[in-house]
Structures are given as structure tokens and as C-alpha cells.
Amino acid sequence: MPQLGSALHSMADERLTVEIVDDDKQREKNEMKTADSTLFRRTISRFASGVTVITTSHGGTNQGMTASAVTALSLNPPMLVLCVNREAPTHEAISTADSFVVNVLSKSQEPLARQFSRPSDDKFAGVETYTSALGLPVITGCLANFECSVTARTTGGTHTIFIADVRAAAAYDERKPLLYYAGRFGRLVLAEDDLRDLNRLEKAESGWTSDWFRMA
Ligand SMILES: Cc1cc2nc3c(=O)[nH]c(=O)nc-3n(C[C@H](O)[C@H](O)[C@H](O)COP(=O)(O)O)c2cc1C
Predict the structure, then answer these.
(1) Distance of CA 81 to the CA centre of its chain
(2) Boundaries of each Flavin reductase like domain copy (predicted)?
(3) What is the domain-level CATH number for residue 53?
(4) Which of 66, 123, 162 should be mutated for ligand 1, with most atoms under 8 A from CB?
(5) First CA to last CA across the chain, in angstroms?
(6) pLDDT tens for each residue of 92-129
């Protein structure tokens, strides 16, 4: 079974990369280059992230945008940080409302990530929401939702960094995350899933079971 064998070895080789150090170490020493925006964009895209849609409302109008520059800041009190380009219309809406919702997208919500990453007069078309205690639109079907109040803001380059208190939150454990990596959307494979696949592959190759073929 040559195909099965090569798949097995490529998975095994990935696990061994850290052991093959000498050539890699030498190569890595020459790899760091002065960062410009092109190099930075290419390089930061290797930092895999979750995907969120930030929603807010002001003057009776809902606004929203796809964002990955969201991170936890403090556990006690619960706080997070959001970075938004000042040119995005959603920036104006968040600044005015001083509050926003972080909707963490689940794997089936890739179309929403695309819908909210393009300027549009009707970003919420076909999107199911309910209204939070602060009067903000919350997207349903997400992995998690955080309702936030802005407590401080500062500027970094083209973006505003919003620092916010998390006022309310909900997580839905049975849903799986949507990820973003190297300019593409993806799915999460937990390490133990990977290991399980490798074990099945090994057994299948030595003729113990054909489970792996049924999974593929
Ligand atoms: C996966 C992904 C992540 C993004 N993350 C951010 C982000 O963190 N901050 C930001 O300002 N724009 C981000 N964007 C770009 C905005 O979604 C895009 O500029 C959008 O049009 C802004 O909406 P608006 O123009 O209606 O305000 C991201 C886009 C994608 C596809």
C-alpha cells in the first residue's frame, strides 16, 4: 500500500522535525530579515487565530466586521483587547457606542466571516441575532459571545486598540472553532485526534484494521 505508507511517513516526519536540528539551526540563523509591511504580513499570517465578528449598534443601526485581532487581557476583572483599523466604518460605530460584542465563529460560520469582511450597506442580511442587555446585536450559532464595554483606547499605527471590560459571556462547548491561518480559513484538529489518526494508520498498514480508510 504505497500511498498509505507515504502518508504515514510524512506524519511521522512532522513529529521528528524538532529532532533534526543542525541544518535547521544553521538555516534559521540567516533567516531573520528587516521587517517591512510585506514581510510582516506574510510572517504574522503564520500565527493561527480564531475568527470573530465584532458587532455593535449606534443610532439604531447595526454594524459589524470580521476581526482576528482580539485577545484576553485580564481574568480578574475580565477584560479583553480588540484592534480595529480606523478607516473601517465599524471603528466609528464602536467608538460612538463605546461597547461591542465579540462573536467567536464556529466552523460552520465561514460564510459569515466572509460576509463581514467586505464593506456593505447590509452586512446583517440573513444573519440571525438577538439583542443583548446593552442593546447590541449578538449573532446566534457561535462558539462563544462576549458583551463588552470600552474602558480605554489607544492608538497603534493605523489601528485603535480598544480595551474593554467583559460584561457578559457565553460558551457553547459542543461547537467547533473556525480558524484563520496563512490567509485561509481552516478547522481545528486537536493533537490527540492527530495521534489517533496516526495510530489507526499504523495499524492499517500492518493489516490490523481498515478503520483509517473508513475515516478518510
Ligand atoms: C480573517 C479576518 C480577520 C480580520 N481581522 C481584522 C482585525 O482584527 N481588525 C481590523 O481592523 N480588520 C480586520 N479584518 C478586516 C475587516 O474585516 C474588513 O476591513 C471589514 O471590511 C471591515 O468592515 P467595515 O468596513 O464595514 O467596517 C479582518 C478580515 C478577515 C478576513
Answers:
(1) 14
(2) 44-187
(3) 2.30.110.10
(4) 66
(5) 15
(6) 999 999 999 999 999 999 999 999 999 998 999 999 99
